[in-house]
Here is the input.
Amino acid sequence: MYKNPWFREFIEQTDFVLLGMCATCSAISVYSIYSIYMTMNAIDKVNVVIVQMIASILGILIAVLLSMIDYRELCEWYKVHMALCIALMILTAFIGFAPPGTTNKAWIALPGGLTLQPSELLKISMIITLAHFLEKYKDHINEVNVILKLGLIAAVPFGFVVLQKDGGTMLVYMFIIASMFFSAGISWRLIAVVVGVAVIGAPIAWFFTDLIGDYQKNRILALLFPDNPAYKSILVQQNSGKVSIGSGQLFGKGFMTDAHNNVPLPQNDFMFSFVAESVGFIGILVVILVILIMCFRILFIANRSADMQGSFICVGVFAMLIFQNIINIGMNLSVLPVIGITWPLFSAGGTSVIATYCAIGMALSVARHNKKKLF
Here is the structure.
């Protein structure tokens, strides 16, 4: 049917299920942001819509391009991309800025009103780098010297995120690292030690360090004591989001309508509430199903990988996506505090979208270049 060998190979080896689920999420995102711009006056410039559309299209192209590159080559080049990402992280200390609605100077301004968040790119580099070393030391994973070496490798990118004091990004990094180590076969005794240290360290971090800012503590306390008048202003966005989700009822209000409830900055962390109000309970279940298919398709690719390096990459990508989705949706439902984690592929933000598609591209590369044989 396909006479061109390259095109035939592309059709046969590309995981269109995963790519299709991602494209569906991006299409909903762009249309939602356009609807917010047209009906709610929450976005003062059409540039946000254009940037999201361009980032989504560019992201899909990048994912396809990365799928054609053998992921093992990118693992071998870890020193290059890790060094570039760290250099960008250091640059934020001098020219970084915080966009409206955020408090961390973790972005770099680009020409044309565009912005870059280096921690998003560093996240992808960390997954690739950690996968490389986990595969290298997989047969000695529980030896003390190996654990210390792997811990140091993971601590380097994580340390730069800690310096930025971006709590949401720190949690994402921690979950990715923990998931990749767990999939590598870390002993349960070591896991118990880490959990114990975390339990002991949490109150120390809360009372005796500035790792958790006052505004972050207040967001947590506001959920624990919602009737306290002191936290009323903190819960405005979450309370508005809950009202929006509930008002969508069974089938939603539709997108292009001015009947939506007013949620502060809905195009960012609270995109879920807008989509839920637009499509209703039935519609948002379908959207969540699309997300789950996307995430578990990546685990399916991990299981089919003939080497552990490919599996580790897919586990890291899966961990990143599932954790961000759970936390963001939990924020919108007011079961978790607002910690600045975007809804992957949905929330407005060019860097986040492109970085997510880079991660998807890595999973597609594993699917293309390394499959277990059926027989």
Observations:
- The mean pLDDT is 89.
- The first strand starts at residue 96 and ends at 97.
- Residues 271-304 form the longest helix (34 residues).
